[in-house]
Write a structure and sequence with these properties.
This protein has 17 helices and 16 strands. It is of the alpha/beta class. The strands form three sheets. The protein has an eight-stranded mixed β-sheet with strand order 8-12-11-13-14-10-15-16, with helices on both faces. The protein has a six-stranded antiparallel beta barrel with strand order 1-2-5-4-3-6. Helix 4 links the parallel strand 11 and strand 12. The longest helix is centred in the middle third of the chain and has 19 residues.
Length: about 500
């Protein structure tokens, strides 16, 4: 007992009283989710502000004698004369490993009906890694989409924009990429910004049905949320990705979409009385997205070796990629995948326009097997697109031109994939090996498209060791290439590909 008394006395003697000092202000104006506060000096941009009603806001405008605060949630209880208290902390999101498989809002509140508690608070905005902390992008991030992996390769740590008109399959490419990361050690984040709640629910259901939620979590700010929450959503998603990157993990983040993010920021800026610029956007709209996308990086081994790959999505109007926001994001990212409405309506899905799509990381992030079979694809496709314009006029074509158009049609047919039907590296390599070797020249295009699933199954069943070795090493030698070619020839001969082509030629002659 004596020991306990002495211990308590020591605690009392060493106790120091540190008063908590709060600064209070007064609401002087409320309008459309924006609150003006006087008498609350010493605030910082992004700081959380608490109102008497229990509502929270975020500082978005700093003036000499007043601050502009945007409400994170719609709250009609905030009125003129209310007392406001500064919190001294910037907006943060609670994080833990348990967030995987969950659906949360930009401030970490669960939206899937189950409790969630984060162990670490990370600020929603954080400076991008410096140049010394980064390393070159050299590891492929396989999308499972043959048109992308062969001609617009994406590497871990890259920023690749997906741009196109409404309803051209932008979200589909992003979701298929997430699904294709199953079992590859990549954690995925899908960030929905300003989307309809029903659209987001469909995406989440598709991820759950495919088993992708085992390595994915979703950050949602729907169209019914306040502009402040839509503004905050991508930064919160990036902070969540950085939580795992700091642990050495590879992370993929999809921002769907940054067009609506820019519109939300424009709304807030106009309500905060900022001077409008081009298309009524504020002057710092470029910095809005650059400070977000620059946080995607491939870190050096000394910094843990993790990476964040960003797939921002931008919606265009009538294919105009030279509009303000698209050109801004194109200049920030390391390339773009351009989806064309005309191709989409012609049944070429994914509707990737290979002429306007580019990856500035290029073949540095492409497996050796893909490098060997995809070298001349872009040239072949460009020549096909050019000659197909002349073929529309019904002019007489020489045999060489007919052969070029036929090969172009077959290559386009290889690039057609259904939603969720992603290919492994070995399957993509096999399909392109057959094309580069001319094995499909005697096969009708429609017949080839119908038989692709059967052919891939035949290859997996009959040359499984070769397919597994390509997937494991990412490369193949001359012997393996010959084995692939022989297996494809055997499948086509067993399934009558050449005979079907002869029958098609007879019908054409008639």
């Amino acid at each position: 007992m004596i020991g306990i008394s002495e211990h308590i006395k020591k605690q009392i003697e060493s106790y120091s009283f540190k008063p908590l000092v709060y600064r209070y202000g007064t609401v002087t104006g409320v309008s459309d989710g924006v609150v003006w506060v006087d008498g609350l000096s010493g605030r910082v941009f992004g700081e959380l502000i608490e109102f008497d009603s229990g509502a929270y806001g975020m500082v978005m405008e700093l003036m000499e004698n007043r601050i502009g605060v945007v409400l994170l949630d719609s709250d009609d209880r905030v009125g003129i004369g209310d007392v406001v208290r500064g919190s001294g902390i910037v907006c943060e999101i609670p994080l833990s490993d348990g967030i995987i498989g969950r659906v949360v809002d930009p401030v970490g509140r669960p939206l899937d009906g189950r409790p969630y508690e984060g162990k670490v608070l990370m600020p929603c905005e954080r400076p991008a890694p410096d140049l010394v902390s980064r390393r070159s992008v050299d590891t492929p991030l396989e999308t499972g989409i043959i048109a992308v992996d062969s001609m617009v390769p994406i590497g871990r740590g890259q920023r690749e924009l997906i741009v196109g008109d409404r309803q051209t399959g932008k979200t589909t490419i992003a979701v298929d990429t997430i699904i294709n990361q199953k079992g590859k050690g990549v954690i995925c984040v899908y960030c929905a910004i300003g989307q309809k709640a029903s659209t987001v629910a469909n995406v989440i259901n598709r991820l759950r049905e495919s088993g992708a939620m085992e390595h994915t979590f979703v950050v949602v700010s729907s169209a019914s949320d306040s502009p402040a929450m839509q503004y905050l959503a991508p930064y919160s998603a990036c902070s969540a990705a950085e939580y795992f990157m700091d642990k050495g993990c590879d992370v993929l983040v999809v921002y769907d979409d940054l067009s609506k993010h820019a519109v939300a920021y424009r709304t807030l800026s106009l309500l905060l009385h900022r001077a409008p610029g081009r298309e009524a956007y504020p002057g710092d709209v470029f910095y809005l997205h650059s400070r977000l996308l620059e946080r995607a990086a491939c870190m050096s081994k000394e910094k843990g070796g993790g990476s964040i790959t960003a797939l921002p999505i931008i919606e265009t109007m009538d294919g105009n990629i030279s509009a303000y926001i698209p050109t801004n994001v194109i200049s920030i990212t390391d390339g773009q995948i351009y989806l064309e409405s005309e191709l989409f309506h012609n049944g070429v899905r994914p509707a990737v326009n290979t002429g306007l799509s580019v990856s500035r990381v290029g073949r540095a992030a492409q497996p050796g097997a893909m490098k060997k079979v995809s070298g001349s694809l872009r040239i072949a496709l460009a020549r096909y697109r050019e000659m197909s314009v002349f073929a529309r006029f019904g002019a007489d074509l020489d045999p060489a031109t007919k052969a070029l158009l036929d090969r172009g049609e077959k290559l386009t047919g290889l690039f057609v994939q259904k939603n969720g039907n992603t290919y492994s590296l070995s399957e993509e390599t096999a399909l392109l090996t057959g094309f580069s070797k001319g094995l499909y020249d005697a096969v009708p295009t429609e017949y080839l498209r119908e038989k692709i699933p059967d052919m891939l199954k035949y290859l997996r069943d009959n040359i499984a060791p070769v397919m597994s070795e390509i997937d494991r090493t990412g490369d193949f030698d001359a012997h393996m290439e010959q084995t692939l070619s022989n297996a494809i020839e055997e499948f086509l001969s067993q399934n009558g590909g050449a005979e079907n082509n002869k029958e098609a030629d007879k019908e054409t002659d008639k």
